[in-house]
Model the fold of this input.
Amino acid sequence: MKEIPVPASAEQQQRVAASCKRLCTFLSVLFYIFTAVAVLSLVGVIVTVIVFEFKNGMSGVLCYALTGGFAGGSALGGCLAFLFAHLLHSADDRRLDYLERCDSPYSFFVGEGTLATFTETELILHGEGENALSVHIPYGEARFFSVCSRRAPREKGEWCVVIELPARYLAKKNHPVPAEEKILVQADRKERLLQTLSLRNLTLLGEQKEASHKKKFTLKAKYLLPMSEKRRRALVLGGIGFVAAAAGIPLAIIWEPTVGSILAVIGIFVLGRATASFLRAKSVLQFYEEGLFWRDQNGMDRIFLKWEEIERIFRGKEGSLEVRCMYGSYHLPDIAGAFEYLKEIRPEKCADRP
Done:
């Protein structure tokens, strides 16, 4: 990533920061525009084909021209939306890195508007601006972990540095917390941060980043937890989509091709979404030779943990599994048979909570 030079004066720094923000906003607008173009063009392809099938007055040349135009617009819109999404991500990374270096060469974002500054003797958490509140934490009470967040069973993932801090430093004065309670904050794993940790003689624990290599992980067992309520909703939505699609086709033949075609397209779209939602309405717990993978019924909560980063797996009394790592814990449902299988393949990792 190419760094943005930091001007000497605060006024110039603010102007550059405002310019970077405007660029991110512009790229974001372009992304949404071309995403809409891609979706609407795809709908245009479907409507054109259906209208041509049920309206004899429409010439083949016009149909092919419209279909080709809409298909090209959909492909072009999708490609440009992907391009601007990539440019937006890169521009935002550069903007945040610039704001960090405006604060200090040893400052890094650990949350929305929160910076962690590594001084010679302590870690300071503070907001942006000169008058922001700050919290001073001695290095001896903090730990630093290199963590790779994997959302799929593969070697590739997003690297970050997780900082473990005593919760009492961030608790409100009228709400004391136990001395042993910890909180975690996260910063991007960048070379400047690694150099800062080395400069302050701070140990980076956890998995170390190696040269990337492609490796296919070996699946050993899979356990499913169906979501009945979500499947019922998907069936109802699918029924509505089926009725709309079934009514749209004869409507296009008998009465108005355009209206019937649009109704059929909407019905097909709803039916497809409902079918996909029904098939995904289950949580998945998979065990691999290299680790375990969890995905919830929405597909949003996805995590792959290597056996090397898992310290213990506890079976709770409330139907849950606590997967404890050095930097924190994950709580997963106790699917029938999963913990028993874990005891067979990884007995050293398993324990019943007393």
